[in-house]
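Re: that chain you flagged

S.,

Sorry for the slow reply, it's been a week of failed gels. I finally had a moment to sit down with the sequence you sent. For the record, here it is as I used it:
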Amino acid sequence: MTEKIIHLENEFIEVGVYPECGASLVYFRTKSENAFDVMRPASQTAISKKDVLGMSMFPMLPYAFRIKGGEFTYWGIKRLVPLNHPLFSDPIHGDGWKSSWKVRETTSSKVVLTLKHEKEKDKGYPFSYESKIVYSLTGKTLNIELNLTNKGLMPMPCGLGLHPYFNKTQNVELKFSTKNVWHHENDPIDRPYRTPEEWSFKESKPLNEMVFDTCFGGFENSAEITWPKYKHSLKVRTDDLFSHLALYAPYRKNFFCLEPTSMTADAFNIAARGVVGSGIQSIGKDETLTGVISFEVNEF
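Prediction finished late last night. Pasting the structure tokens below so you have them in one place:
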């Protein structure tokens, strides 16, 4: 495909990692006779253009989702965050997905990537930090470890998350449990509300043509996706840190996104208004925030 893609594989699954394109994945698929693309594979055009939005998955750090208006106040200081993509009117998803990562270690089933961000010279988040991502395969499971270390003098507000694009096929089913809704497209709310029954996936049910651009809270750290037509399922497991889950399912697309994160959309500004539970993490100088998410594939 290209020499810049790092191929990881074992007996059961294979993954392509693109360090120069936001530490993203370009494919995640099984290797059995009934081989299946768990995530939407990136096209050759997306790869050649380094179009992160066309990848299979990318990390979100040091924050997830939008920062409305490109500013927030922390410790009484107004922080400005520049726009980072022409398609969005607010800065979104952090710096990691827009950066080229360094490769520190590789084996046939593991890669370690790092990123250094200095606020004085790097455009983006107005804090200095270092980040590390470890992709590794164990049996039928893809493990992702996200690390974020504050390299500045002041405490740094932050968050971690993943933005996967799952393969949307006929009658794909979702199962996950949440307590409330923090954000819904075109829904001008300033406080979370209980998840409506019609948006509940506590019991497995087909996604069908339901449209979502929604961030849920009270995520119970596990989700399951089932593709009945292709006889595959995926179990998503996360650390307690990831207390939020976004579901993005646009109309008539070949993908949907189920995104585990530590925070909700516009979490910094929500927290500044005194709303509790937005998921903002704060780490002091040289402190590290770590989170692990795993994707286990099974056939039936």
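What I noticed first: The longest strand covers residues 288-299.

Talk soon,
D.
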